[in-house]
Amino acid sequence: MKQLILTATLVHLLVLVQAQPKPTNEKRADSIPEVHLEEVKVYGLTKNTNQQLLHYYRANQAATTEDILARLPELNMIRRSSYGMEPVIRTYNSGQSGLLIDGMRIHGACTDKMDPASIYVEPQNLQSVQIQTGHGFQSGSVIGGTVNMKLAEAQFDDSRKWSGSVSSGYQSAANAWYETGKLNYSGNRLAVMTNISWRKAGNYRSGGGAVIPYSQYEKLNYGITALYKLNDNWTAKADLLLDDGWNIGYPALPMDVGYAGARIAALSWRNVSRTGKWQETEYKIYANSIRHFMDDSRRINVPMHMDMPGESRTYGGYAASKLVLNRNIQLDIKADWSSTFLKASMTMYQQGQLPMYMLTWPDNNTLQSGLGAVFSKRIDSASLFRISARADVFTKSLTTQMAKDQLSVLNNPVNNIHRLLKNIAVEYNYRFSEQLKLKTILSYSERMPTSSELYGFYLFNAFDGYDYIGNTLLKPENAWKAEANISGRSGIFQYGLTGYISRINQYIMGIYQPGLSTMTIGANGVKKHTNLPYAMIAGAEASLIVQPDHSLWFINTTRYSYGEDHQQQALPMIPPVRNTSSVRKMIGPCAVQAELELATAQNRVSNKAMERKTAAYAIAHLRLMYSGSLAGNLFSIDGGVENLFDQAYREHLDWGGIRRPGRNLYLQVTYQF
Amino acid sequence: MKKFIQSPLYIIVFLSVVFLGSCTKDAVEPDAALSYIQLASGYAAGTSTHVEVYASDSAFTGYNKLYILLKDSATGKPVDRAVVTLNPTMDMTTMSHASPKENPVSITAVNHFFPCSVSFIMPSTAGKWTLGVQIQNLENGKSGTASFTINVKAPASAKMFSFKSLADNTTTFFVGLVEPSKPIVGINDLELVVYKKQSMMLFPADSSLSVIMTPEMPTMNHGSPNNVDPVHTINGHYKGKVNFTMTGFWRLNLKLKSGSTVVDSTHYIDITF
Ligand SMILES: [Cu+2]
Ligand SMILES: [Cu+2]
User: Fold this and answer.
1) Which residue of B has its CA nearest to A519?
2) pLDDT value for A59
3) How many angstroms separate the Cα of A514 from the Cα of each of A336, A411, A524, B225?
4) Mean pLDDT of chain A, nearest integer
């Protein structure tokens, strides 16, 4: 309640200040294309490179959102299935970083993390990906950073009232179909875009020929988004995004999904003017509901069948604006609020007995309100100084007596948890020349323990084979992080190099409890989420883009990660050195693209997590693109072979030792009108 | 917010229920909310008193909580002061025996009821149970006895067992489950009663044992954390905690010791909910 009042007050404050007469500043208006103003919009380090990579890899119409995200150097994908790969920033886990859709918080409804929010965004409704690492807490108290997947918007087009596209494709490795359709209406003040995409895949064939059972899936994603121009400055936007999945297999987990559905809705008001004191003001309210039905009914040789449904409901809103004091000083403010309800249960069936029922996520609610601000000051033509700060108030509560009763079995306090989280970062940018820029960030951030970490009740983790129990006495993690980036452009070369190191105090990890008996039949034991003194996470990312002329690109990204706990032992889920190269040559209406993915072996693994080692691999892809016109409209064909040499390989973050798809021939035909 | 709404509301609802409940009727009938069922009723000859025996369930082999309601036969008004003594006996044609019991601890009724207990040690299929309720009505000064035939059923899973002590191979003990009567997923009060068979007619409460209780779900082969072994409190009652992590079929394995000597470790009590 207190938080609600706090947020409401903040929003009001913002509106009040907003309503004040705006002094015009002709001089400033002239100087809009200032680089530093642009940069504030995206707090991350390598925005330019990232958007270029995104743009480059999206050119392949057959690519999934996950394929695209996997190419971004800051992101790693945790794979439990060919569907629903979980994007994480660097090697921070999902609890340590934020994954937002258009600024909205969406919590998965699966206790096993089968449903990261990224599955609800198909390439055709993805506009851009904003990754914030250095000041990653601007959209939430996180220590790893934030990924925001911006949704595509309806387009105003003076020349055409109706436009759209249809696309159809096939992939051989999983005998998979991918069909999409998109329709855009552009009126005078109103623009509406609707899109639909359908994917259906069978069990895929891995490198070397073995078919991976339970890797099938089917999903339908559809939505409608509308923009309405209220006046010259203000635009209202409405989004409705729906996603249904059926019969989704998770080969690395003991369970699959019968049905999963997401309903996501948002309303926002945006000021598009770039004059006046307050600019780019946005208000947004949103709601989403996820339902997830996990079961093992299709598995054979299961000792006991069980159903594990889960649900998640989130309401939230935010107000954001930019206060431009003068051409050298500006302040970005965001106040946000969200409330997330989670519940998941497990019912086990044994012939001749009453069903066994328990809550795996005892009904719980997270109420969060936060206020963040970024103060930027240009000192001189070469240097920029920035301070970011954010505070979050959290209340976590168990909402039913049953939830409290059940959790008290673990001797945990079951009363409400209140926490105030604090974050601050200082950044200094220096431009040596047009060819060389330096950016350094030092930050302190905190993050709230997740509902699973606090309340999880014997959640089986297929990665290490332990049942995990929550701990309501967990303290928030806090992290000190230093990050430096040099980037530049020289002739046909564009390069970036980032290094980061962080020390995470109160590091949350599962610790084996020898005295407790497992719940899951066959589990190795029980682990309890515990604050460890600290852990270290460090790494580096490098990217090189070479573009000799408009018909040739060469892209190379390399990433390296390192992690250790307070006993100098390896953290789990740390990928080895990985390098991706891609070269694209345009020949008339065609393009040829060759890609090479390399990874060294990962032999430095976590024994505590019973992590397996991963061998080095090299795989190659070959892609062909053609775009021509048909009846005056754009027509394109994308085809190619992925894993050209049919390598049997797996990446280090793939669970369960499951091999990735083998040679995959694909063809996607797209027609735009 | 939640606290603010809940606590006054609770109190108001609670008070109004209590208030209305006590005003509208004289609670001669058992409180509907407690949903007692009547096991038997009849007159105690020469006492001008009608005796009614209630329980929360029909009688079963094991520890039965009983509630005796006495009414003045002329006015129908409850008799709240009386000395009540129970005499359960089982007639097995060749022999007869009594069973462990707990007479009401007070001569004053609680909400018009005299709480007491009988631990039927066999089902009625083995013989005929008679429950003698001897009363001394302190309101009219008359004494007498009412006798009832009680049909005792064997529950689906045993709520009481007996064993011969491994220490001397002669003493027979009876162990019965009192709580949890309404098990939940969570922490449950665990209460056991222990009686010693001194003779066919005498079953005194025993406080000499120590109990180690280990719950398990035999179907899944797991237990539960943070249980508290029951320890003796009073009159043969042993209290502890049993934790259930899910609904279903649970088994409470019991190990009973006298000092350091294990006197029995082969028995268990099953609870399914
Ligand atoms: Cu799931
Ligand atoms: Cu169980």
Assistant:
1) B222
2) 82
3) 42, 16, 10, 11
4) 90
Q: What is the reported pLDDT for A48?
A: 65
Inspect the interface and report whether the beta carbons of A357 and B248 lie closer than 8 Å: yes
Burial class (CB in 10 A: 0-12, 13-18, 19+), A188: exposed
CATH number at residue A585: 2.40.170.20
How far apart are alpha carbons A296 and A298 in whole angstroms? 6
Whether residue B200 lies inside any domain: the answer is: yes
Mutation target among B188, B222, B224, B243 for the A interface, most CBs of A within 10 A = B222
Look-up of token digits 């990985």: A578
Whether residue B101 is found in the same domain as residue B184: no
Name the residue range of residue A667's domain. 2-672
What is the share, in percent, of chain A residues with pLDDT greater than 70? 93
Residues B129 and B215 in one domain: no
| A358, A458, A460, A517: best to mutate for the B interface, most B CBs within 10 A | A517
The answer as to whether B219 is a domain residue is: yes
- Asked whether residue B56 falls in the same domain as residue B118, the answer is yes
Closest CA to B271 of B143, B167, B165, B181: B181
The count of structural domains within chain B is: 2
Residue A516 distance to chain B (closest CA, Å): 6
Residue type, A340: T
CB atoms within 10 A of CB A634: 13
What mean pLDDT is predicted for residues A180-199? Answer: 96
| pLDDT for residue A551 is more than 50 | yes
Count: domains in chain A:
1
Q: Where are the beta strands (DSSP E) in B76-157?
A: 82-91, 96-98, 101-102, 113-120, 128-137, 143-150
Q: Answer yes or no: is B143 within a domain.
A: yes
Say if residue A296's pLDDT is above 60: yes
Mark the ranges of chain B whose per-residue pLDDT is less than 50. 1-28, 30, 32-33
Q: Which of B 194-233 lie inside 8 A of A, CB atoms?
A: 217, 219-226
C-alpha distance from residue A136 to each of A139, A142, A283, A333, B85 (Å) = 7, 7, 21, 14, 76
Lowest mean pLDDT among A386-390, A587-591, A665-669, B137-141: B137-141
For the domain that residue B247 is a member of, what is the CATH number?
A: 2.60.40.10
In a domain, B11, yes or no: no
Compute the distance from residue A526 Cα to the ligand 2 centre, in Å: 14
Which residues of A sit within 8 Å Cβ distance of B? 1, 304, 346, 348, 350, 353-359, 397, 402, 404-406, 408-411, 457-458, 515-519, 521
C-alpha A217 – ligand 1 centre gap (Å): 14
Ligand 2 centroid distance, CA of B254 (Å): 19
**Among the listed ranges A21-30, A155-164, A192-201, A595-604, which one has the minimum average pLDDT value?**
A21-30
Report the Cα B161 to chain-centroid distance in Å: 15
* Whether residues B187 and B146 fall in one domain: no
Reported ipTM: the value is 0.84
Q: Which of B157, B182, B184, B185 to mutate to test the interface with A (most CBs of A within 10 A)?
A: B185
- For residues B51 and B130, membership in a common domain is answered with yes
Which of B127, B150, B173 is the last residue before a domain boundary?
B150
String of DSSP letters for A497-543: EEEEEEEEEEEEEEEE-TTSPPSSTT--EEEEEEEEEEEEEEEEEEE
Kindly report, residue by residue over A413-460, the tens digit of the pLDDT: 999 999 999 999 999 999 998 789 999 999 999 999 999 999 999 999
Q: Do B111 and B198 fall into the same domain?
A: no
| Residue where a domain stops, chosen among B94, B123, B150 | B150
Pairing of strands A305-326, A278-295: antiparallel
Domain that holds residue B119: 37-150
- Tell how far the Cα of A462 is from the centroid of ligand 1, in angstroms: 12
Distance A106 CA to ligand 1 centre (A): 15
Tell me, yes or no, whether B143 and B165 share the same domain. Answer: no
A393 pLDDT above the threshold of 50: yes
Is residue A52's pLDDT more than 50?
Answer: yes
Is B237 found in the same domain as B210? Answer: yes
Q: Work out the minimum CA distance from B1 to partner chain A, whole angstroms.
A: 6
CATH code for the domain of B45? 2.60.40.1940
